[in-house]
Structure formats: C-alpha cells, structure tokens
Design a protein that fits this description.
414 residues, 2 domains, 0% strand
Length: 414
C-alpha cells in the first residue's frame, strides 16, 4: 500500500510538472514555425544523448546500495560519482570543441549552442542524484515539489524570452541551461548539507562504480537511441519542418511515458526493498502484483490516444494538426517499453547488468535499421513504428534474462 501511495504522489507531481510544458505548447506552436520547433526538438535529442554520456547512469548505484550500506559508505559512493561526472563533462567539452566544425555542419546548429550540452548534462546529473536520494528516502512530496519548481522556473524563463524578448528556439535552450544550473546547484547543496558528500577521491570505489555502471552506459544510450533517434532520422531524411510536426505528436504520445515513469519511481525502490529480505510468500505476492500490472498497462495508451485527439485541436496551431497521426504509435511504443520496468530491478539487484547492455544494444540496432527503412517506405510515421518494434524486442529480452537470473514463481514455477 505504501508503494501505491508513493506511486500516486509521484504521478500527481509528474502530471503537474508535465502539464506546464503542455501549457507551453500553444506558445511554441504559435511563435515558432514547424522548422524552428524542429531545431529545438533536435536540440532536445542531443541533451538526452548527453546525459548518459556524462552520467553513465551512475545514479543507479545509489538505489542499489541505499538499503544495504551505511550512510558514510553511501556518501563515499556519491562523492566519487560526482568526480566521475565532472571528469566526463570536461572530456566531452574538449571533444565537442575539437569536432565543432563537423558537428555544426551536420546538424546545422551553431557550435556555441552545442558547447552548452555537457554543462546542461552535468547539472542535470547533480539534480538526478538528489532526486534519486529522495526516492530511496521515500520522500515523494519533496521529490515532487523539487520537480515542479524546476519545471515552473524553466517555463517562466522560456515564456519571458520567447514572448517578451522575441527569442525563437534559442530561448528554450537558454531556459533549459539556466534551470539545469540553478536546480543542479540546489541539489548539490542539499546533498552536501545532508552529509551525503564525503571528502576525498577513492580509486577502489571509482573502479567499482565504473565496473557496475559500464553496462548501464550502453543500456542508457541504447534507450535514448530508441527514444529519440527517430527525430534525427526524420531531420536527415525528411526535414526539420517534419521533425517539428512529429515532435508535437510525440509530446502527446509520451503521456504514457510520464505516467509509467512516475509509477517506476515508486516501483523500483519498493522492489529493491522487497528483494533485500524476501520469503517465498513475498515472492508469490510480488508476482501477483506484477501480473495485475501487466493487465492494466495496455489500457493506458488507448485512453491517452482518445484524450489527445480531443485536446490537440484546442492546444496547437493548425500548422501542427497533422501530428495526430503519430500519437497512437508513440503511446503504444511507450506502453510496451514500460513492461520492462516491472522486472528491471531483478537484473540490478543481482548485478547482472551486462544483460541490460546486450538487450538494449540489440534493440537500438533494430531501431536504427527500422527507422531507415520504415521512414523510407512509410514516411514520417515509420519512425514511430520503428520505436514500437524496438521497445517490443527490448522488453521481451529483459523479461527473458530477468526470469533466468533471479528465481521467481512465474507461472507457478518454484
């Protein structure tokens, strides 16, 4: 019941937090052309790629160790994670600087804006580390307040720049950068004052973190490839105007991801807590809960699709109305993706994260191939279709490996 209560709180805060970007959608579609919206969408993809490159999904080590180590040990882990992400940020800044001419030519975005990406990712990691700690401390109200405040600040800065100062997509980049720095700094401050940052570099801890987290890296990047490479393919094969229209449909379809992501923020720590000392009866109860969720999840994309068709004409400019054809595919893609959330903790708990890397890498490869051929033959909608296929492969693969590495009474098995 506590897990359900926390999931409801996370869902409520996510709905409030994500409702604000939806409130921004009428402004963006009114003040930005589809091509300009497309540039911002491509930049969002780059931000999403940059976070796992900087962070290596190291925040998973907090959840993995929270219930089994002392606060002093957790502080050492947190501190060395921060050292790693700072090192990664500096490395990526150097690489971007050296390759700026080629990347600028490929993406048609000035290098001065691209150089902000590692900075955004660094402070996003600080924010994620603090939020991960709040999740495991079972502080959903503080978590939600922090997330909502972040979104409100970004909304205020973005609207001020776009409406008040006449900025275009650049206003969104400035807003993303400013809000990331502000809340990343606040998150770092709270970690420090709460005693979760220890002094000193520990080479052994860094090696352990890297060994555990390296499999998360291809998993994280592979997930981003599946989630966002569609817009890069559309950009190169169709054009930025098509990216802009597609991205509006994507925002409506990803409501499923918002709901399931909020649920997973409660589900993952709860499962880790159960697995820390679980009996045979506890295993049966956990399996029954999982089966119930498997039955409920498919209804979510249907509901989202119907609601989106009603509200889209009200919320977006007529130039973007074709986006409605992409919603159903994206919604179902995210529903299929969320199925792997249910068993993901088993692989993390047993340290068998290498399977995450293998499955996600293969799924990302399927996605890249699918994007090329399905966009070529079906047009822009082919990108959403490729996402559904890739997430199906990914969820099936992770379920298969999770059932092998951790003994649970699936289908009555002992």
């Amino acid at each position: 019941m506590s897990m359900i209560k926390h999931a409801a709180i996370y869902l409520g805060s996510s709905i409030v937090g994500k409702a604000i970007p939806f409130a921004l959608l009428p402004i963006l579609t009114a003040y930005l052309t589809p091509e300009e919206f497309g540039v911002w969408s491509v930049y969002q993809v780059l931000m999403a790629f940059m976070v796992p490159l900087v962070g290596l999904n190291l925040q998973n080590n907090i959840t993995r160790n929270f219930f089994s180590v002392s606060k002093e040990r957790l502080a050492s882990i947190m501190s060395n994670i921060i050292i790693i992400v700072i090192f990664n940020t500096l490395t990526l800044l150097i690489i971007l600087f050296l390759m700026r001419v080629h990347i600028e030519k490929w993406l048609d975005i000035k290098s001065s804006w691209l150089m902000l990406l590692p900075i955004i990712a660094l402070f996003t990691m600080f924010k994620q580390l603090y939020l991960t700690l709040l999740r495991n401390q079972k502080e959903p109200f503080r978590y939600g307040a922090f997330e909502i405040a972040f979104t409100i600040i970004m909304f205020v800065i973005a609207t001020s720049l776009i409406i008040g100062a006449g900025f275009k997509w650049q206003g969104m980049v400035i807003a993303a950068t400013a809000s990331a720095i502000m809340f990343g700094t606040i998150g770092f401050f709270f970690l420090y004052t709460s005693g979760y940052i220890a002094k000193g570099l520990n080479g052994k801890t860094i090696r352990q973190l890297v060994i555990i987290s390296l499999p998360f890296f291809p998993h994280g990047v592979g997930g981003i490839v599946i989630n966002m490479s569609d817009r890069l393919f559309i950009d190169q094969m169709v054009g930025k105007e098509a990216v802009g229209v597609y991205s509006v449909g994507f925002m409506f379809g990803m409501i499923v991801s918002i709901v399931m992501g909020a649920f997973n923020k409660a589900w993952s720590p709860w499962v880790h807590e159960q697995l820390a000392n679980i009996s045979d009866d506890g295993k049966k109860r956990l399996v029954r809960v999982t089966y119930l969720l498997l039955l409920l999840i498919p209804a979510l994309p249907i509901f989202v699709w119907i609601i989106s068709l009603i509200f889209m004409p009200i919320m977006v400019d007529v130039r973007y109305i074709e986006a409605k054809q992409y919603i159903v595919w994206i919604a179902f893609g995210y529903a299929v993706q969320s199925l792997y959330f249910l068993v993901f903790p088993y692989l993390v708990h047993t340290g068998k994260t290498i399977y995450l890397a293998k499955v996600t890498f293969f799924s990302a490869l399927i996605n890249l191939i699918g994007n090329y051929f399905l966009i070529k033959y079906n047009g822009t909608v082919g990108a959403a279709q490729a996402t559904v296929i890739a997430y199906s492969v990914m969820s099936l693969g992770i379920w298969y490996h999770a059932s092998r590495v951790y003994n649970m009474p699936w289908f009555g098995k002992r």
